[in-house]
């Protein structure tokens, strides 16, 4: 692993802001980020990612999108199945809770993806135009598979129509898909007048958002006492195995360094925006504290601190 890549990620402003938030909780500071502000920052990031992805997608050869999209969709089905099976070995949880966790790990994390894009940009590595499209496409399949595994294992049933409606009409999907569409329509010329808001201010907003997430993650660490060592081990090892294997696969099939890193990070990240809403609707009996704490308090910082530089190192070595 290239330790200079790890250092550049560790010392980036977003990661340091996340650590500052966690430190504030550890020293019992009264630092708080108002929930409406955090929600607003999230909406901004979603729309900005969609807009910039749409602009880049307009100049992307459609043939270039086919391979990463097919790979991503296939992995979006396989990863939650693997997570569900591994959790059965590592934890004492029933199918409902294992399915809920698998749904989170089968979906994607906008902020982890954004941090990876920022890291690639700081290293001068081009981000493929289809990156935001992959983010949007991979958010849903893993959630659906996780919910199906949970219901099948528990011998129950649920309304898939209402679950699908909740996912498709959720703010994350609406803003990402809508932003992609707007960016693709207006192109680079139409985006130029609003670029100062959605490009120049982007990293500053990400720093504030990660500060808020650092506070939230540290506050939820206590919930892991009920999850056992198995869940903690899963939340650390599983994403690192996935990011290494998928990044290597992406590099070997010719996605390039940027494409391989994007695919690897998307598959290794865990959702804490779209997945919780879907699980709350479809699996009200599941303990939502388990997947939220594992994904936000363990896997998210692991991916920020180790997963992203590891992915870049693997892709650079192979690509």
Layout of helices and strands, plus pairs?
Layout: H1 3-10, H2 13-26, H3 35-58, H4 62-90, H5 95-106, H6 110-122, H7 131-139, H8 141-154, H9 160-168, H10 171-191, H11 195-200, H12 202-219, H13 228-252, H14 256-268, H15 274-282, H16 289-318
Helix pairs in contact: 1-16, 2-12, 3-10, 3-12, 4-5, 4-7, 4-8, 4-13, 5-8, 5-16, 6-14, 6-16, 7-10, 7-14, 9-15, 12-16, 13-14, 13-16, 14-16
What features would you describe in this structure?
By secondary structure, the protein is an all-alpha fold. It has a single domain (3-318), classed as Na+/H+ antiporter like fold. It is 80% helix and 0% strand. It is built from 16 helices and no strands. It has helices spanning 3-10, 13-26, 35-58, 62-90, 95-106, 110-122, 131-139, 141-154, 160-168, 171-191, 195-200, 202-219, 228-252, 256-268, 274-282, 289-318. The mean pLDDT is 87.
Question: Mean of the pLDDT scores?
Answer: 87
Q: How many domains in all?
A: 1
| CATH topology grouping | Na+/H+ antiporter like fold
Helix count, DSSP H or I runs of 4 or more residues: 16
Task: Report the CATH C-level class.
Answer: Mainly Alpha
Please tell me how large the radius of gyration is: 18 Å
**Are there runs of 5+ residues with pLDDT below 50, and where?**
none
Total DSSP E strands: 0
Main β sheet profile:
none
Shape: globular
Determine the fraction of residues in helical runs and give it as a percent range: over 70%
Task: Report how far the terminal alpha carbons are from each other.
Answer: 14 Å
Q: What are the secondary-structure elements, in order, as H or E?
A: HHHHHHHHHHHHHHHH
Q: Helix/strand/pairing class, anyone?
A: mainly alpha
Strand percentage lies at: under 5%
């Amino acid at each position: 692993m290239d330790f200079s890549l790890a250092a550049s990620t560790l010392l980036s402003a977003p990661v340091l802001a996340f650590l500052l938030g966690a430190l504030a909780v550890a020293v019992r500071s009264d630092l708080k980020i108002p929930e409406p502000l955090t929600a607003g920052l999230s909406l901004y990031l979603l729309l900005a990612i969609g807009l910039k992805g749409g602009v880049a997608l307009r100049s992307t050869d459609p043939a270039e999108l086919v391979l990463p999209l097919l790979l991503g969709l296939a992995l979006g089905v396989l990863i939650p199945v693997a997570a569900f099976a591994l959790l059965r070995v590592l934890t004492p949880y029933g199918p409902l809770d294992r399915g809920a966790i698998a749904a989170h790990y089968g979906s994607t994390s906008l902020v982890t993806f954004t941090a990876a894009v920022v890291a690639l940009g700081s290293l001068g590595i081009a981000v493929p135009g289809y990156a935001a499209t992959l983010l949007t496409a991979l958010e849903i399949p893993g959630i659906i598979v996780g919910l199906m595994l949970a219901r099948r294992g528990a011998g129950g049933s649920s309304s898939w129509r209402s679950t699908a409606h909740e996912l498709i009409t959720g703010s994350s999907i609406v803003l990402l898909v809508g932003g992609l569409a707007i960016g693709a329509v207006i192109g680079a010329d139409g985006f130029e007048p609003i670029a100062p808001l959605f490009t120049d201010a982007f990293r500053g907003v990400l720093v504030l958002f990660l500060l808020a997430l650092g506070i939230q993650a540290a506050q939820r660490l206590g919930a892991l006492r009920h999850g056992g060592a198995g869940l903690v081990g899963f939340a650390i090892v599983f994403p690192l195995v996935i990011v290494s294997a998928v990044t290597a696969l992406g590099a070997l099939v010719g996605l390039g360094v940027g494409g391989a890193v994007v695919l690897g990070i998307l598959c290794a990240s865990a959702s804490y925006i779209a997945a919780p809403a879907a699980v709350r609707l479809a699996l009200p009996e599941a303990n939502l504290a388990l997947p939220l704490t594992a994904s936000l308090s363990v896997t998210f910082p692991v991916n920020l601190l180790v997963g992203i530089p590891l992915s870049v190192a693997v892709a650079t070595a192979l690509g």
